[in-house]
Amino acid sequence: MSQGENGKSEDRDLPWTVLRLLQWTTDFFRSRGSDSPRLDAEILLAHARSCSRIELYTSYAQEPTEEERIAFREMVRRRGSGMPVAQIVGYREFYSLSFRVSEATLIPRPETEHLVIEALDRFRQLTEFRSGHQCVDIGTGSGVIAVTLAKHLPNTKWVATDISPRALEIAIWNAEQHGVSDRIDFVESNLLDKVTEPRQFSIICSNPPYITEDEFTNLEATVKEFEPKSALVSGPTGTEIIQQVIGLCEDRLMAGGFCILEMSPMIAESCMELAIESSLFSEVNCLRDLSGHRRLLSMQRIA
Questions:
Q1: Residue 286 main-chain phi, psi, to 5 deg
Q2: Residues of the chain with pLDDT > 90: what percent?
Q3: pLDDT category, 271, cuts 50, 70, 90?
Q4: Distance separating alpha carbons of residues 170 and 125, to the nearest angstrom
Q5: Among 72, 77, 303, 116, which residue's Cα sits nearest to residue 206?
Q6: Cis (ω within 30 of 0) for the bond into 84?
Q7: For 201-215, how does the pLDDT look when each residue is reduced to its tens digit (9 = 90+)?
Q8: 86: which of 104, 107, 200, 294 lies 20 to 30 Å off by Cα?
Q9: Closest by alpha carbon to 299, among 109, 125, 113, 95?
């Protein structure tokens, strides 16, 4: 961005302070359809200046260096083309933790935090709250679910699977950064195909692909063009992977254990029917997110 780009001649000679950069960029992102234009601008400028967002608020009158402005300008250009902010800066906050992400992983969404909360609540209901509980995160991506739960449940051990070796590299890095890599075994596997031990788990959780092929064609470009399709699309109905995970519970979920899955509200009814028809569970619950949409399937194996 150069002086005068806002089109007002009277502003042409004003300095490009932190505040002015944020105001200009917020308007620019809003014109490009961003749902959070001010937040996007703040995250990118803070990253360009190697500071926290809070520090921006106390430096509105400062003028970033030319090097900082060049870096910021490039990030603004990339965001304007549709690239997600998380991929531009290389990280995303999830459950108050910072996670590295890349084009090989999904960007963690706030909705998935509900899965973590449900898993924490359900774990406390397990009859034997002791060390040695084995849990699994199927399709771990950047590892946010397994890493977050391992950090909050220190007496658990985890297996985290993914078919993408590039995603697993990111997940392993995140586990190391958060000090839980010694309690998570990362396995390149389709579901649990390559996981022979342990045979059964106290908790099976997953944010699996659940978008239909038709839905994928209508996704926003910021998702469709920048996040891995294999982590988004399940098949014609959207329930294909969820049905497979439910089927795994017969042999791989211990009696009384919990299976917790994220799903699309549009397939919630079908997923409930699949869980009930399996006759594997004593309890099947469909939980809503903060917007009131049915987002989680939480099931307890018959004891």
A1: -110, 115
A2: 84
A3: very high
A4: 31
A5: 116
A6: no
A7: 999 999 999 999 889
A8: 294
A9: 125
Q: What's the first-to-final CA gap in the chain, in angstroms?
A: 63
Tens of pLDDT, residues 138-150: 999 999 999 999 9
What are 81's two structure tokens? 């083309």
CATH architecture under which domain 102-301 falls: 3-Layer(aba) Sandwich (3.40)
Residue where the block lists tokens 């469909």: 286
What confidence tens digit (pLDDT) does each residue in 43-73 have? Answer: 999 999 999 999 999 999 999 999 999 999 9
The DSSP secondary structure of the chain, one letter per residue, reads: --TTTTS-GGGTTS---HHHHHHHHHHHHHHTT-SSHHHHHHHHHHHHHTS-HHHHHT-TTPPPPHHHHHHHHHHHHHHHTT--HHHHHTEEEETTEEEE--TTSPPP-HHHHHHHHHHHHHHTTSS--STTEEEEEES-TTSHHHHHHHHH-TTEEEEEEES-HHHHHHHHHHHHHTT-GGGEEEEE-STTTT--SSS-EEEEEE----EEHHHHHTS-HHHHTTS-GGGTEEESSS-HHHHHHHHHHHHHEEEEEEEEEE--GGGHHHHHHHHHHHT-EEEEEEEE-TTS-EEEEEEEE--
The two tokens of residue 141 are 């991506």
Alpha carbons 80 and 45: distance in angstroms, whole number: 14
Rg (CA), the chain: 22
| pLDDT value, residue 33 | 87
Q: What's the fold here for domain 9-81?
A: Helicase, Ruva Protein; domain 3 (1.10.8)
Structural domain boundaries of the chain? 9-81, 102-301
